[in-house]
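To close the section, here is one more complete example, presented without commentary so you can practise reading it yourself. The ligand is 5,10-Methenyltetrahydrofolate.
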Amino acid sequence: MSEVVYGSEIAKDIKENLKVKIDQLKAEGKRIPKLVVVLVGDNQASLSYVRGKEKACQFVGMENELITLPETTTQEELLSLIERLNLDTAVDGILVQLPLPAHIKEKDIIHAIDPNKDVDGFHPCNVGKLMLNEETFVSCTPKGIIRILETIGYDDLSGKRAVVVGRSNIVGKPIAQLLLNKNATVTICHSRTQDIENVCKEADILIAAIGKAKYINRNWVKEGAVVIDVGINRDENNKMCGDVDFEDVKEVCSYITPVPKGVGPMTIAMLLENTLQSYHKREG
Ligand SMILES: Nc1nc(=O)c2c([nH]1)NC[C@@H]1CN(c3ccc(C(=O)N[C@@H](CCC(=O)O)C(=O)O)cc3)C=[N+]21
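Output:
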């Protein structure tokens, strides 16, 4: 039997902490940190995530502007908006919600955001700094996962084996790097990996970021492993679920994060932290 780790509760503590800090800035008559979220088109899932970000900003008392643009927005129009936000001294963080419509090149947009306002940590400058273990904006989901490990006291990773399933630029690769920076022995598995089940079974820490509903069952998991589920999928009843078959795996691991209320809320909390970090870099 394992302990279920509610990221939602850890995130709540983090947000309460941020609220105190922002109240303090207000009391001192200082400028308030500001996050701008840009949403292109009306992808339903994106709308729901963006609302979560808005609610969190309101909770901590951070300024939040949501700019919604029509699906037909051109790449040039989006680039000129980003240029304006880059130059706006009142803006600390810029987040362009992904995915973007197919006619816009995500890479060009990510490259256009000022690395000093890239609170997602997606810009190549910030990704490079992560690889060099230099201070930077760390991508929010991976940062949230590390914070979960720290909170459960499982952050001395020397001699531990970590297996990351999934190699995306926004989760798989950066979480592998963060685990490596903490001295774990890291393996990245993906769709071309042979004998993936047995590779995963070696993991002391298993990170699931593949995007396949309930793909990982107890046969993939070593007894006592820590299992972090990054997946956001729908099951056969259209209920939100992770990449891990939670009910099955929770019988064999030591800690497991649920979906929802696991990694997702941590992502939002880390976004707010990154925005405050950006503010302090600017304001001192
Ligand atoms: N530029 C960019 N940055 C992102 O960080 C980014 C993005 N684009 N595109 C989409 C993904 C996804 N994402 C989530 C954040 C919070 C929850 C979250 O809080 N989920 C709640 C439940 C939400 C619900 O019930 O719908 C939970 O897991 O408990 C989920 C997903 C950020 N993303």
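Once you have examined the tokens, check your reading against these statements. The mean pLDDT is 97. DSSP finds ten helices and eleven strands in the chain.
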